[in-house]
Amino acid sequence: MTAKSPYQQFAANMFQEDSIWLPRILESMINEEQAELLISLPGSQHSLAAKLKRSEEEIESDLADLFHKGLAFKKMKDGVESFRAPAHIAQFHDASIVWPEAPKAFYDLWKQYMEEEWPKLAPLIQQFMPKPFTRVIPVNKSIDAGKVKVLTTEDVKQTIENAGRLAVTKCTCRLTMGKCDAPLEVCLQVNRGAEYTIERGSGREVTKAEALGIIESAQEAGLVHVTMNKADIGGFICNCCGCCCQSFSLLVAEGVSLCDPSRYAPAIDAGKCSSCGLCEERCWFEAVAVNSYGIAEVNRQKCLGCGQCATVCPEEAISMTEVREPDFIPGYSAG
Fold first, then answer.
1. Quick count: other Cβ atoms within 10 Å of Cβ 242?
2. pTM above 0.85?
3. For the chain, first and last CA: distance in Å?
4. How far apart are CA 282 and CA 289, in angstroms?
5. pLDDT digits over 230-245, tens only?
6. DSSP label at 150?
7. Of 14, 2, 21, 3, the residue nearest 38 (C-alpha)
8. How far is residue 248's CA from residue 309's CA, in Å, rounded to a whole number?
9. What's the Cα-to-Cα distance from 18 to each of 9, 206, 212, 251, rounded to whole Å?
10. CA 224 – CA 218 distance, rounded (Å)
């Protein structure tokens, strides 16, 4: 049996032992000695130097390069800095693609992977995950806070106002897939996510006013807010399209669900609906359509509760209603 290269071993660590594209992606980023270091993680600079029989200076230089390219993550414990590799394919994807100096050939390799291999892995991830890793947040404009209860974790503007530090990166999915002309620099990093982004140089720090402006432009472009599926928005607020997004595109095409809906769903006032069809055009998920009676109706099984349909209705015939209890959000506590 032929021994695996460190590039192939990394792919195996991402649970894709037979991947053609992951080794090629990694090989376009780092040399073989660096790949050996990567698959030797976790460890400190000192322990890795001893393990690989290399000088600490060489290890330090390579670790800095791996960190910059999104291949190594830092952790400080008891005064000792250690590094670990990406924990799974989503982390490898999201961190590496915002490598600032990435060449076009690198993005092309990722596109090949997303088109040929990711659709085979995603259903397995769905099968073994108790809950999706991400969740949709409704567009603020679509919610009447006087009629429904909006939790802080569902309020993008409040999250921004409460943040200690903010940064913005380009959308990893649109960088690689390039299927639409939606804004690129719209993925917000919050608190620890922002600190990581700024240290790496993979994005830029923004003020709260700038972040709110980014959210406004994303909403106008019809993008869907997505965050971590937990009660505290602590890492990111992505603004996703349905054609490039690694989760949404599979949901639409094959029904693979890797993102939870929000707690809300649109309700149609038939008396106000003018059959204009703007809501149908706006929906990425084919969840709203004008029926044979000329009235918009919602397919709740397809709807992710993003609220984009409500924002474009000229007759204000669509209102967002609560359809799930607060404890639908993992980690939520009424206390």
1. 23
2. yes
3. 58
4. 10
5. 887 568 999 999 999 9
6. -
7. 14
8. 17
9. 10, 41, 43, 24
10. 8
- Tokens 């809300």 -> residue: 264
Show me where the domains of the chain are located.
6-127, 129-328
Residue 61's alpha-carbon distances to 32, 33, 96, 275, in angstroms, are: 15, 12, 18, 62
Contact (CB, 8 A) for 239 and 245 = no
Architecture of the CATH domain 6-127: Orthogonal Bundle (1.10)
- The region that residue 286 occupies, defined by phi over 0 for left and psi between -120 and 50 for alpha, beta otherwise, is left
Provide the CATH topology of domain 129-328: Alpha-Beta Plaits (3.30.70)
Residue 290 has which token pair?
Answer: 């004008």
The one-character DSSP state at 95 is: H
pLDDT tens digit sequence for 254-311: 888 899 999 999 999 999 999 999 999 999 999 999 999 999 999 999 999 999 999 9
The answer to whether 279 and 335 have CB atoms below 8 angstroms apart is: no
Residues in the chain, overall count: 335
Residue 257 structure tokens? 């669900």
Both tokens of 311, joined, read 């924002």
